[in-house]
Amino acid sequence: MWHWIILLIVLIVLLFSMMHNIGKIMQRGEKPNNEKSKPKKVRKDVSPVLFGRKKEKEETGLRWKIILSDTEILEDYEYVFSDAIGIGRKKEQDDFDGFLMVNDPKISKLHCSIFVYENKLYLQDEGSSNATFLNGKKLKSSAVIQKGDVISIGNTTLKIVKVFKETR
Asked: String of b and e for 43-70 (b: at least 16 CB within 10 Å)?
C-alpha cells in the first residue's frame, strides 16, 4: 500500500516539474515539442542607415509625414517622423519614431520599417518570417518608396497615399 502512495507522489512531482518546464519554454517563445528553435537570421543586406540614423536626423533637420492606407479595412495611418517607423504585430522596439501595430497573425512582431536615408524614404524587411513585398515583388534589400507604392505584409496590404517633407 505504501509503495503505491510513494509512486503517486513521485508521479505528481514529475507532472508538476514538466508543467513548470513547459511554462518556462512557452515564456521564451520556444517550441514545447523539443524542436530546437531556428537561429535568428544574420542580415547581410542591412542598410548602413541602421548604424547612422541619428546622424542623418541631426544633419537634415527635416521631418517626414507619410499616410498609409490599409486597403482591406480602408483605414488610414498618419505618421510624422524624422528617422524611422516600424511596422509589425507587436510594439517592442524603441528605435522608431512611430510604430504601426497590425493585427495579422502572419506578420512578425517587427516585420519591416520605413526609414530616411540620404533624403529619401526606404522600406526594409526586418528579418520577418513571411517576407515583405513592395508593389508585388519580394523585398530582398532596402528599396526606395514613394506615393502610390503598395506594401504587402502577411495578409495586409498598405498603400502609400501621401509623402511630405517638412522643415521644423
From this structure: eeeebebbeebeebbeebeebbebebbb
| Buried-exposed string 112-140: b where 16+ CB fall within 10 A, e elsewhere | bbbbbbeeebbbbbbebebebbbeeeebe
The number of beta carbons lying within 10 Å of the beta carbon of residue 159 is: 16
145 to 3, 34, 99, 112, 161: CA distances (angstroms): 72, 42, 18, 13, 11
pTM value > 0.70: no
Average pLDDT across each block of 10 residues of the chain; the chain has 168 residues. List them in order.
84 83 64 42 37 40 75 78 85 75 88 88 92 94 90 89 72
148 half-sphere exposure, CB direction, 13 A CA radius: 0
Could you give the angle at the alpha carbon of 76 between the alpha carbons of 117 and 115, nearest 5°? 10
Distance CA 80, CA 40 (A): 31
